[in-house]
Amino acid sequence: MWALRAAVRGGAWLSRAVRGCRPPRAALLPPPPRPERALAAVRGGLGCSEGREGGRGGPRAGGRRSRADGEEEPEDAEEEEDEEELLRRDPLLPSGTQRVCLVHPEIKWGPGKPQGTRAEWQVAEARALVCTLDGWSVVATMVVPTKTPDKKLIFGRGTLEQLTERIRGSPEITAVFLNVERLATPTKKDLEAAWRVPVFDRFTLVLHIFRCNARTKEARLQVALAELPVLRSHVKSNVAHLGGRGRSSRYTMGSGESFLQVQQRLLRDRETKIQKALERLRRKRRLLGQQRRRREFPVVSVVGYTNCGKTTLIKALTGDAAIQPRDQLFATLDVTAHAGRLPSALTVLYMDTIGFLSQLPHSLVESFSATLQDVAHSDLIVHVRDVSHPETELQKASVLSALGGLGLPDALLESMVEVHNKVDLVPGYTPVEPDILAVSALLGLGLDELMARVEDAILRATGRRTLTLRVRLAGPQLSWLHQEATVQAVDVIPEAGAADVKVIISDSAYGRFQKLFPG
């Protein structure tokens, strides 16, 4: 009994989640829209990002929050504290410098053999994942054939003995990265006991990278949600460590529950709180999206495989010096918006999205699916590909498969613009398909053609057209057009007291113009 109670007390990382539980409250209404803030963000070309805006709970004044109906209600500081508590957790991987041995199980035949790829390409991506973490390096790489990838220890007995001898005989190795999607907890423990160093899988490594790169509260909460399977496996492992006594114990801390039942309930409570916190932030993000649509800013979602150059391309298209691309996997986890001008002077918002990865752990895909749903509300998708990568076709298939799972409108998928980036690394490169654009975002090659293609697609998708309207100089028409349309040219006619104004205007805005200024 005392051992169980001590174990529960030691699990402070979990018990904090339900400390001071309160009855559920009605969710607060989102703050009222502030068009002037959105417009200022767009004109400034900075990240009027839903992720960055979503983490602060809206505008504050005197400790109160404005509701949509104009009333004031107290700000819920307790919810803010709950969210911060959910984000306090122990690291998944050891900190400090790590010298990693990369072990890649190569399946040469059978249903588990990967299609369309080669072992050296998979190893290169795995190495890049490890090197994404500060202070981590790969000091040894072992590609090991296996006929038994589904067995407990993955490798046959003889192969495992050879691996163990090599790893134990290399004192510089401090950890092993086994390049499989997920290791069962018993397998992980047995391999760590055999190799005498920490062992981690693709899921744990990618999840740790996500945690390191998550900047906004929403992204951090999404990572916390994706971590729950790891915490659940830790709970089962702790119960097994107690020799199974936790399952049979009748009473723990007076609750009448076994140790395992208590920990599972705490995890369910944690998951519920994370989901509620995410929903609060998503309501604010949806409000920003509605505000943006009211301003009728066209939205271009830029998607692609991780590290294909999406952020660099957006920086080249917008000229936004605040954007700082990083040459690493999953540098972008938050959907951010950046304003840019097309050749017609039409302002559009380029949405920088999370990158895709082949064999991305399923729970991570689920956790970030709501973020990717922003793509469904865009007017155009630009699919960026790294044509210098040897697996560029496989990467394309991974991206298209992920987009297909989002339930996007057929018209949006059919109008998608495919861009081949990093052509400066492939001398003499020319796309085979005529509709594909070749660019170098880093060197600025092919950007004029890309912007012209984006402009043409945006005008078709949003129902905009170019018109020349005659307006009186003394009236409010010209000022209205400057606010509601894109003015390209103004030809003043002094003798008539009027001007011919060439504009790009949407059908809805033109309808309002005709109602406001008939004749």
TrEMBL record:
It holds the Pfam family GTP-bdg_N. Residues 23-90 are annotated as: Disordered. GO terms for molecular function: GTP binding; metal ion binding; ribosome binding. Residues 298-462 form the Hflx-type G domain. Gene3D superfamilies: GTPase HflX, N-terminal domain, P-loop containing nucleotide triphosphate hydrolases. Keywords: GTP-binding, Magnesium, Metal-binding, Nucleotide-binding. Residues 70-85 have a biased composition (Acidic residues). One of its GO terms (cellular component) is cytoplasm. NCBIfam families: GTP_HflX. This is Putative GTP-binding protein 6. It comes from Ovis ammon polii.
